[in-house]
Specification:
By secondary structure, the chain is α/β, with parallel strands linked by helices. It is built from 30 helices and 40 strands. Bound molecules: iron/sulfur cluster. The site of iron/sulfur cluster has 12 residues, from helix 5 and helix 10.
């Protein structure tokens, strides 16, 4: 084509395009002009360009002075848009009690990667947010965090006490007084015309066994279940009531259906099956990060901080990274594609990849031998290593009765029973692991014990045998990651050694979740990166404010109860210690299988609590107090199974929900107590992990709550309800003189502020030195001055301005430099890290009777009886595997935020182009996904950014409540918007465990009890 003709054509296209544009957009253009002139929402525009956007939160004059907007303050707050719980700043209209805008708290490391020292005056710090300086010191909220202030005035919010006026879940309510609520839930009676309901007073029986045949189950008081969504800052307050005041053993939270599979596997490697420690990459100094089952900038925790760190590291630093996931995540940027790559993997096969990498590292001299050869702390120090493992410790082999545990000095008739032995690398003699010498890595030998000979193997050899159970080609075939990619990843890990990190999180929630996470985390132990700068770092945590602090004891009180008995979810208690087990043995029966799984090394599991209660195994529940929990939405298969059971009050007679909104679970409650929302309430939180400086977030009511004001000045919400309930029941720990101080005094607990202000005093005085006193200017700029009359009436004089300091900064923050000490992280674990976890390795599964592997192992997805998932649901019938992924915009409870919905109104169903062709599905077409547990209908997103064989669904949509449907309160319909129900909830596809015949429940990880949402067998069809 000659140049003239091309130019002519281009001109024609431009003219034609402009004409088409003008024709197509005539209406929007007219609207835009009208909007500029007369406003788009009926309000005239103030400014031709800025419209009615808010003026800046403050101005910096040419002289460099900071001037606040009139009747406004910028207060530090805590976000609850997700479990990162960032410290944010709220611009508050103090005249009208409204939060106008949300941004990041500049003091807070979850919002500002390089925060100033907390002693810096607020005025100086706020100045750094303005102008060009603001780019460097920018402290941000993510889109979700920025949008959630609108929840305060949401039309779907609950602000009255409600009692159901129809069948459970029917959506009919009557508003009642606090007095009526307390009378009914405490004293019980025929509350709903459906028969007698026991009240909380009758349920709190601390003496009578709940089941005399099984005394280990504990007293009848255990028939109250108390749950919260998680620790969003008020955990200590609620646990004080549940455990120590009421005296129930049963407290649950969302962990079992969030990321518990990961936490359990991580805890096994960190040798911490109590708190289930976990780490995150030291992003600022790592050279290579391999993410498996987590996608920074898309998901994981800390979500926003990691996203920023990743972006900075790949642009400014020297970081290379790979994200292994079934779907292409936001973590990958085309701008830096040589730095970050996506490796597709079949859903729920990460264990195969991890074991392949373990095998490759072992075969190719990629493990850190010098690190692994140090058997204890003394050898670690002598060798200058950042931590040590039990790679060289000797594991007793079957048929020894202690098989799976370590050979100790006591086995040989000498020394401390708990001190494992190793083989001296030089002499070949047995020595204690505490000796400051290297130990042999690969050991298999027979030893003479006091009770005869026994075989032992080093932990590292046990791991080698587990990893060598399959060839690399077999692992590759199973997980769909090509062999050359696996080898390339192995080379990267080997090359970077301790500055390579393998990261994981919620993507582990599959039918073999625990072992998947344990296997992935073991890679870090083999690299020797734990505690090392640029390695896998423990979070530095925070200061416990609401415990037994330096000023006030908020944990103990006169008459406090120590809860007793078996957790309802049959966790932290071996089945082999149960009366049931002993009875079966005495009757000459096999004790296996138990009636249902016992999760002996897990924390309490809300995934099992309700199913256990419905079946009465170990015992039934009589009441449930739920604070913001929503297991019916969050547990795979929860709505279909647990929801249907919960509708029948015979299965759980009394259900009280404390919540700001009616979610899918709250909708089935008997009573709803309105709760204060984040910006209206008090609380103390700490980052889950990923922040190397000690950090405690302090939140306080920056606006007056929308819930009713009580006679004592408190507003109705969680704390006010619990205090009133405890008062009615005359429980210990509340009211007059309930809080002891460190000077021998006693203080009343009548309001939330009585509790949390004293927590602030503890926080202010924690550590070697108290924080300084806040200046008057600090208090005015942040509006913490609003709290001062209350603070002065509650705290001692030397505490008052220091508490003001805590609230004006939004918490207490250690200096940035404290994050590292030379080549080590500032916060370090001193635990012996587990290549072999002897607690796990000596656990016998309650259903299968098999002894579990104490190290990483390849089991694949299983049901409770140990049978592989594919034995029940073969690939021929169910050719696809469903996987979920996190939304970077929407959380499980944020659908009511209109600004988020406007950007991302619903979630399509992702499927690979070739799978779509096989199923005859076109992009944008309605489709139905079917699993053995349910089906959902949505819109097909046909793409290449998903592995073949997978169906992927973004979490956060497909709600049936939270405003998606209308309820009747006192006969009046509540506002509703069906668009809040848009999209699909992947958990509606969750399935029942077909092998749990006696105590039915949904599919849970066969060892940890975590909810299964990755790798659900499925098929898809066009509608
Ligand atoms: S990551 Fe975003 S939504 Fe989550 S707590 Fe932080 S600001 Fe809020």
């Amino acid at each position: 084509m000659d140049k003239k003709r091309r130019a002519l054509l281009q001109t024609g296209m431009m003219v034609g395009g402009a004409g088409a544009f003008a024709a197509g957009y005539a209406n929007p253009v007219a609207k835009a002009v009208k909007g500029v002139l007369s406003g788009t929402s009926g309000v005239p525009a103030n400014d031709r360009i800025a419209g009615n956007a808010l003026p800046p939160e403050f101005m910096i004059t040419p002289q460099g002075e900071l001037v606040m907007a009139e009747h406004q303050a910028v207060s530090p707050v805590q976000c609850f848009g997700c479990w990162t719980l960032c410290g944010l700043r709220a611009r508050v209209d103090t005249a009208n009690n409204r939060v106008l805008r949300i941004a990041g708290n500049p003091y807070h490391p979850l919002s500002n990667p390089r925060p100033p020292a907390q002693e810096t005056p607020v005025r100086e710090v706020y100045k750094t947010l303005a102008g060009e300086a603001g780019i460097e010191q920018r402290s941000t909220a993510c889109a979700r965090g920025a949008a959630l202030a609108e929840q305060l005035h949401s039309p779907y919010r609950v602000t009255r006490i409600l009692k159901r006026a129809g069948r459970r879940g029917e959506g009919k309510w009557q508003s009642i007084s606090l007095e009526q609520l307390l009378e009914e839930v405490v004293e019980g009676g025929d509350l709903f015309g459906e028969g007698q309901v026991d009240g909380l007073r009758a349920i709190r029986d601390l003496e009578t066994p709940v089941d005399p045949d099984n005394p280990e189950y504990g007293p009848r008081a255990n028939q109250l279940l108390v749950t919260n969504a998680g620790d969003e800052g008020r955990d200590s307050f609620l646990k004080r009531f549940a455990f120590n005041s009421f005296g129930t053993r049963n407290f649950g939270h969302h962990g079992g259906y969030c990321g518990f599979g990961f936490r359990a596997g991580s805890g096994a490697m960190f040798n911490d099956l109590d708190k289930f420690a976990h780490g995150k990459p030291d992003w600022d100094h790592a050279a290579f990060v391999l993410c498996i089952g987590t996608s920074p900038a898309q998901a994981g925790n800390p979500f926003k901080r990691q996203g920023r760190q990743l972006a900075s590291a790949r642009s400014d630093g020297g970081l290379d990274y790979v994200v292994v996931a079934p779907t292409l995540p936001n973590s990958i940027s085309r701008l830096n594609e040589e730095r970050g790559r996506w490796v597709p993997i079949k859903p729920a096969t990460d264990d195969a990849l991890a074991l392949a990498l373990i095998r490759w590292l072992m075969e190719n001299d990629g493990i850190n031998r010098r690190y692994l050869a140090q058997p204890g702390p003394a050898a670690q120090a002598r060798a200058g290593q950042p931590s040590h493992t039990n790679a060289t410790h000797l594991v007793l082999q079957a048929p020894h009765p202690r098989a799976g545990q370590f050979l100790t000095a006591a086995d040989l008739g000498r020394g401390e029973a708990s001190s494992p032995l190793v083989v001296n690398a030089d002499s070949g003699e047995l020595m204690d692991h505490t000796d400051a010498r290297e130990a042999a890595l690969w050991v298999e030998r027979e030893v003479q014990l006091a009770d005869g000979p026994a075989r032992v193997k080093s932990a590292l050899l046990c791991l080698r045998e587990a990893a060598f159970g399959q060839t690399l080609a077999q692992y590759s075939d199973y997980c769909g990651v090509p062999l050359e990619i696996i080898e390339g990843l192995g080379r990267q890990l080997k090359r970077h050694g301790p500055r390579a990190v393998v990261d994981a999180h919620g993507g582990m929630m599959n039918g073999n979740a625990f072992y998947t996470a344990f296997s992935v985390m073991t890679l870090n132990a083999l690299l020797g990166n734990i505690n090392a700068r640029g390695g896998l770092a423990l979070g530095a945590g925070g200061v416990a404010a609401v415990e037994n602090g330096p000023r006030y004891d908020l944990a103990r009180f006169d008459g406090m109860v120590t809860p007793k008995g078996l957790f309802l979810s049959r966790n932290r208690f071996p089945y082999q210690n149960s009366s049931e087990y002993r009875r079966k043995l005495a009757a000459g029966e096999s004790p296996y299988p138990a009636r249902a799984p016992w999760f002996s090394f897990s924390s309490p599991l809300l995934t099992e609590h309700l199913a256990a209660a419905f079946a009465g195994y170990p015992y039934r529940l009589k009441a449930w107090i739920s604070h913001m929990t929503n297991p019916l939405y969050g547990i795979g298969g929860g709505q279909a199974f647990l929801g249907e059971k919960l509708k029948d009050p015979a299965n759980l007679p009394l259900f009280i929900a404390v919540d700001g909104f009616i979610n899918e679970t709250t909708a089935l409650a008997d009573y709803i107590v309105p709760d204060t929302l984040t910006y209206e309430s008090w609380g103390f939180t700490k980052p889950w992990s990923g922040v190397p400086q000690q950090t405690t977030t302090a939140r306080w009511p920056v606006v007056a709550p929308a819930t009713p004001r009580l006679a004592n000045g408190d507003h109705l919400g969680l704390e006010a309800f619990i205090i009133a309930l405890a008062g009615k029941m005359e429980l210990p720990g509340y009211g007059k003189g309930a809080i002891p101080d460190s000077r021998g005094g006693r203080h009343d607990l009548h309001t939330a502020a009585d509790f949390y202000l004293r927590g602030a005093a503890n926080l202010a005085f924690a550590g070697d030195r108290p924080v300084p006193e806040a200046s008057a200017d600090d208090l005015v700029l942040t509006n913490a001055a609003r709290l001062m009359p209350l603070i002065e009436a509650t705290l001692a004089p030397d505490e008052q301005r220091r508490a003001g300091f805590i609230f004006s900064r939004g918490g207490r923050f250690a200096p940035f430099e404290s994050g590292w000490q030379g080549e080590l992280m500032g916060k370090r674990t001193g635990n012996t890290l587990c290549i072999w976890n002897a607690t796990i390795g000596s656990t016998v599964h309650a259903m299968t009777g098999e002894r579990l592997s104490g190290c990483a192992a390849f089991y694949g997805p299983r049901f409770a009886d140990g049978s592989p998932m594919r034995d029940h649901y073969p690939e021929q019938e169910w050719p696809l595997l469903v996987t979920s992924y996190k939304s970077h915009l929407m959380s499980s409870s944020s659908i009511g935020a209109e600004r988020l919905r406007m950007i991302h109104p619903e979630n399509p169903i992702s499927i690979h182009r070739r799978d779509a062709e096989r199923a005859g599905i076109r992009h944008g077409q309605p489709v139905r996904v079917i699993t053995p547990g349910g089906q959902v209908e949505g819109i097909a997103l046909v793409r290449d950014g998903i592995v073949e064989g997978a169906v992927a669904i973004e979490h956060g949509y497909g709600h049936s409540e939270l405003g998606a449907r209308s309820h009747l309160i006192d006969g009046e319909p509540t506002p509703a918007n069906p668009r809040l129900g848009a999209g699909v909830n992947q958990n509606d596809l969750g399935l029942m465990d077909p092998t749990r015949k006696e105590v039915a429940n949904v599919w849970l990880d066969w060892t940890s009890g975590a909810s299964v949402r990755q790798g659900l067998p499925a098929r898809i069809e066009a509608i």
